[in-house]
Specification:
With 507 residues, the chain is an alpha/beta fold. 36% of the residues lie in helices and 21% in strands. The protein binds NADPH dihydro-nicotinamide-adenine-dinucleotide phosphate (NDP) and 6-O-phosphono-beta-D-glucopyranose.
Length: 507
C-alpha cells in the first residue's frame, strides 16, 4: 500500500502559507462568533462541535466567545447543556477533555429574540459588548432557513450590528445553502443581502468544499504530473459523480418538499465537485483564480434538457415509508428524491465526454464518489490472457472511508500469464496518521482568516442556477411525475437507460 504520510505534511504546509498570507485576526483581538438559529440541527450537530474543535486546537484567540441567538426560550446554562451533548474531544487527550469542554462552554452565551426585530439584535449587542472590549471582530453564521435570511440581515443592519472599521475590525456573515430556488430568486436574495453586507463580507458556504478529499482534488490534479496529460476527452471516456443516502428525508419534509434533490445537493455540492474535476489549471491558488476557473466550467455547461434527466421518488419497501407518506409531505407531491442526469462541458478539453451525475435519498448505501473512466486500450498485446482489457478507472471516494483508487490491469502471480483488474489503493484511514477534520472546522477557520477560495462567489451561484433553472421550471409547470423506486434500491431503472443513451453504463 502507498504510504502518504510525508505528502500529507507538505500539503499542510501549503495550506498554512495560504492562511497566514490572509490572516487578519491578531491574538489579542476579541472574536465573537454569533450563531443565528442556534437552537437548530446544524448549530448543535456541526457548528458548535466544529468551534470546539478549533478552540481545543488553539486556533481561537484568548478573547473568543460564542453567542447563540434564536426564538426558543433558553437560559445560558440550558444552552450550554445542549451544546455539551454534542461535543467530542477529537484533538484533546482524554484526561484533559472535561476541563477543555468546561472552558469552551463557559464562553458560550445565549440570547432569545425574533429574527426580524432590530430590538432583539440590540439585546444581542448588549450581551456581546461587555465581552468585546478593545479590537473586536464578528463572525455571524446564519444557521436558519434561507427564507428568513433577508429579515435577519435587515434587522441586524437596523440594529447597527453590521459595522466594522475597515482595516481594523471586520464583520463577516456565513450563509448556508440553498441560496434561492432558481436563478431569479437567487439573484433577488443576493440583491437584498447586499443591502446589509458587502459581497466582500458574505461567505456562501458549501460544506462539501470543506471535505478533505474534495480539497485534495486540486492537489491530485496539479501537484502530480501523471494525471494532467491524460485529463481530457482523448483519454477520458466518461466522468460519473454519485451521491447516495440510505435514509429518507426524516423530519426535514418542510424544507425538502419545497426544494427536492436537484436543489438540495446537485445544484450546489455536485456542481462544485464537477467544476473542480473539470476546471483548467488556475493561475494561482488564490480565491479569485480558483473561483474564476470553476466559474469557467459552469458557464460551459449548457442548460440541462429534460431528455437528459431522470427524476425518481422512493416508494414504500417493508417498514420504510414512501416519500409521500413521510410526515409533512403532501400525498400527491411530485418532488424528486432522486435525479440522474447527463451533462456536457462544452470545452475543447472535454469534447465527447459525458458527465453523469446521480443523487438520491432512500437508496441502498451512503456514499459519494467520483469515477473517472479512461478509454480502453486500443490494441491488446495480451489477448491470449484476457480477451478484452478493462479500462483504467480513477475512483475518488469522498465518503465514507475517504480513498483514492486507481484500477489497473496486473499480472496475477504464477507461472502462467493471467491478468486481472487490481487497485492501487490510497485509504486515508491507514495512509495518514492524523485526525481528519470535519468540513465545517476548516471552513469556519477560513472565514475567520478571510480566506474565500472554498466559498461560493455570486457569479458561480448564478451560473450553477442557469444550468438547472429551465428544467426545474419545466418539471414543476408540467408536474412531471418522478419514477418510483423501492426504498433501499439502486434508484429507478430509467437511470440505466439514460446512461445507455449516452453510450455508457453506471460504474
Ligand atoms: P432547522 O430547521 O433546525 O432550523 C434552525 C433554527 O431556525 C430552528 O432551531 C428554529 O429556531 C429556526 N427556524 C426553523 N424554521 C423556522 C421558520 N420557518 N421561521 C423562523 N425560524 C425558523 O435548520 P437546520 O439547522 O437543519 O439548517 C439551518 C440551515 O443550514 C438551513 O439553511 C439548511 O438548509 C442548512 N443546512 C443544514 C444542514 C444540516 O445538517 N442540518 C446541512 C447543510 C445545510 P427557533 O424556533 O428557536 O427560532
Ligand atoms: C446537505 C443536504 O446539504 O447535505 C442534506 O441538505 C444532506 O440533504 C447533507 O443530507 C449531506 O451532508 P454530508 O456531509 O452528511 O454528506
Amino acid at each position: 500500500m502507498f504510504n502518504a504520510r510525508n505528502q500529507g505534511l507538505c500539503y499542510a504546509v501549503i495550506r498554512n502559507i495560504n492562511y497566514s498570507a490572509s490572516m487578519d485576526l491578531e491574538g489579542k483581538d476579541a472574536l465573537s462568533v454569533i450563531i443565528v438559529g442556534a437552537s437548530g440541527d446544524l448549530a448543535r450537530k456541526k457548528l458548535l462541535p466544529a468551534l470546539f474543535s478549533l478552540y481545543s486546537q488553539g486556533f481561537m484567540p484568548d478573547r473568543f466567545h460564542v453567542f447563540g441567538f434564536a426564538r426558543s426560550a433558553m437560559s445560558h446554562e440550558e444552552f450550554r447543556a445542549r451544546v455539551g451533548e454534542h461535543l467530542t474531544c477529537r484533538y484533546v487527550p482524554e484526561h484533559d477533555c472535561e476541563r477543555k469542554m468546561a472552558e469552551f462552554l463557559s464562553r458560550c452565551h445565549y440570547v432569545q429574540g425574533s429574527y426580524d426585530s432590530p430590538d432583539s439584535f440590540m439585546d444581542l449587542y448588549q450581551t456581546m459588548k461587555p465581552l468585546e472590549l478593545g479590537r473586536a471582530h464578528r463572525l455571524y453564521y446564519l444557521a436558519i432557513p434561507p427564507s428568513i435570511f433577508v429579515d435577519v440581515a435587515r434587522a441586524m443592519g437596523r440594529a447597527g450590528l453590521v459595522t466594522c472599521t475597515p482595516g481594523k475590525t471586520w464583520s463577516r456573515v456565513i450563509i448556508e445553502k440553498p441560496f434561492g430556488s432558481d436563478r431569479e430568486s437567487s439573484d433577488r436574495m443576493a440583491h437584498e443581502l447586499a443591502q446589509a453586507f458587502p459581497e466582500r463580507d458574505i461567505y456562501r458556504i458549501d460544506h462539501y468544499l470543506g471535505k478533505e478529499i474534495i480539497q485534495n482534488l486540486l492537489v491530485l490534479r496539479f501537484a502530480n504530473t501523471i494525471f494532467e496529460p491524460l485529463w481530457n476527452g482523448r483519454c477520458i471516456e466518461q466522468v460519473q459523480i454519485t451521491w447516495k443516502e440510505n435514509i429518507g428525508i426524516g423530519s426535514r419534509a418542510g424544507y425538502f418538499d419545497e426544494y427536492g434533490i436537484i436543489r438540495d445537493v446537485i445544484q450546489n455540492h455536485m456542481m462544485q465537485i464537477l467544476s473542480l474535476v473539470a476546471m483548467e489549471r488556475p493561475a494561482t491558488l488564490n480565491a479569485q483564480a480558483i473561483r474564476d476557473a470553476k466559474l469557467d466550467v459552469l458557464k460551459h455547461i449548457p442548460p440541462l434538457r429534460l431528455e437528459d434527466l431522470v427524476v425518481g421518488q422512493y416508494r414504500r419497501n417493508g417498514k420504510n415509508p414512501s416519500y409521500n407518506e413521510e410526515d409533512g409531505v403532501p400525498r400527491d407531491s411530485v418532488t424528486p428524491s432522486y435525479a440522474a442526469m447527463a451533462l456536457r462541458v462544452d470545452h475543447a478539453r472535454w469534447q465527447g465526454v459525458p458527465f453523469l451525475i446521480r443523487a438520491g435519498k432512500g437508496l441502498n448505501a451512503r456514499c459519494n464518489e467520483i469515477r473517472i473512466r479512461f478509454r480502453p486500450a486500443t490494441s491488446n498485446l495480451f489477448s491470449g490472457a484476457l480477451s478484452s482489457l478493462p479500462a483504467n478507472q480513477l475512483v475518488i471516494r469522498v465518503q465514507p472511508d475517504e480513498a483514492v483508487a486507481l484500477k489497473v490491469v496486473s499480472k496475477v502471480p504464477g507461472l502462467k500469464l493471467t491478468l486481472a483488474e487490481t487497485e492501487l489503493d490510497l485509504r486515508y484511514a491507514t495512509a495518514f496518521n492524523v485526525v481528519i477534520p470535519e468540513a465545517y472546522e476548516g471552513l469556519i477557520l477560513d472565514a475567520i482568516r478571510g480566506e474565500k477560495s472554498l466559498f461560493i462567489r455570486s457569479d458561480e451561484l448564478a451560473a450553477a442556477w442557469d444550468i438547472f433553472t429551465p428544467v426545474l421550471h419545466e418539471l414543476e409547470q408540467r408536474r412531471i411525475k418522478p419514477e418510483p423506486y423501492d426504498f433501499g434500491s439502486e434508484g429507478p431503472a430509467a437511470a440505466g437507460d439514460l446512461a445507455a443513451r449516452h453510450g455508457v453504463e453506471w460504474l
